[in-house]
Amino acid sequence: MNPTADILLDHAPPEYLARWRSRVAWRNTMHPGQVSPGGEWNGWVVQAGRGFGKTLVGAFDTIEKSLDHDHYRYGVVAPTLGDVRSTCYEGETGIITLMTVGNDRVPGMGLVEGTDFTYNRSRLEIDFPNGSHVKGYGAETPDRLRGPQHHRLWFEEAAAYRDAWKGDSLNTAFNNALLGLRLQGRGPTQYLVTTTPRPLKLMTDLLARTGVAVTRGTTYDNLKNLSPQFAEAILAYEGTHLGRQELAGEIITDDPRALWRWAWIEDHRLDHIPDMVTLAVGVDPSGGTDEIGIVTAGAILGECPCGEEGQHFGVVDDQSGHYSPEGWAAATAATFHEHNADVVTPEKNFGGDMVESTLRNHDPDLPIKLVNASRGKAVRAQPVALLYEQGRVHHVGNFASLESELTTWVPGESSWSPNRLDALVWALTYANTGTTGARRVKAPSGTITR
């Protein structure tokens, strides 16, 4: 701290002094990889594994710049609006959390909502008494980033943006936001990217740009600050291809022993959803603490936009995640109605009739086809992987976690359960065997054994 700041603090009100000291103590908890690089740079890419503390980097930078500069405009872009709220703002190391109560490992600044800042949760806006303003955006709607102007931007999990496969091209979320980074007078206009890397064009474009500083880090850099439960769960991937990406922060394409190849996905993407038939929401309601797989896929009606002959298929959504029973039922029903799907195909092995009952309790009218996994995952997955190899399956956009599972899960060797992969297999298997033409068929309840 410089001498002028010491003099100012000697005369500061007690409550301001306490908050400043809290802020200094908070900065002292950061490890070297979380400190912004020196020198001149336009962009700073923090490419690191899970648990490194990437979100804390972005949240701290947002708060510090907003407090240090009057009338500062800071934009926060995450894969979805929900990610802005649940991770960048209200997460364990999110902006609101760090400004107020903090968490077990990072002290909060003790700022008071309504006095030291205001937070509009529905609009994802934070305002400070000095006129600074923070606004959150979801990358799923790139057009909304065309007009806003900012002094600084934080791109959270940029490799997971739906259009990240297009790279830094016009009318993508990244490019639209960057074109609005043109406000002057509050220091240099800079942007920060915090992401777990993936072999998408946006990452290669970013790393090739001039004026970009890169920080690479691993989960191990911040292991002492992680909860034992998280550390145990994430370290289960140690020594695997997926672990090299999720732990070491490396850009991994695929494991040569896996059923899927990265090129089968990357070379056949579509940027819009074509007319679809036999659209199924595949669900893998696995037991334990694993994610619930919820993936929507179907057959493309008529000629494929790719121009190739034959029946082609589209993967249009992935809403997999950690849910309560009511939560995954609600997410499944919402996905079904959003895409005007034909059927829900949940696996019944975990829970039996309770699977259908859980869905019915939430939405009695869902057309459900229970599927019974009588064969191993690899045997069920191989026909679907063959469709990918033939270039007949098209991902509509970028599905980061699903694609990581597909290209890194090794049958008989991976110790983790690929629940997104399973849900995809159920949806595409139904689409491939149940195609009926242009008419949407509402399937009755029943059980399919595969």
Q: What shape does the CA trace take? A: globular
Question: SSE string, helix = H, strand = E?
Answer: HHEHEHHEEEEHEHEHHHEEEHEHEHEHHE
What's the helix count? 15
**Total separate domains:** 2
Straight-line N-to-C gap: 66 Å
Structural class: alpha/beta
Content of β-strand: 15-25%
Main CATH class of the largest domain: Alpha Beta
Instruction: Round the mean pLDDT to the nearest integer and report it.
Output: 84
Number of strands: 15
> Residue ranges: pLDDT <50 for 5 or more in a row?
1-9, 435-450
Q: Gyration radius, to the nearest Å? A: 23 Å
CATH topology of the largest domain: Rossmann fold
Q: Give the fraction of residues assigned to helices.
A: 25-40%
The assigned CATH architecture of the largest domain is 3-Layer(aba) Sandwich
Biggest beta sheet attributes: 8 strands, mixed
The CATH superfamily of the largest domain turns out to be P-loop containing nucleotide triphosphate hydrolases
Order of strands in the sheet with most strands: 3-4-5-2-6-7-1-8
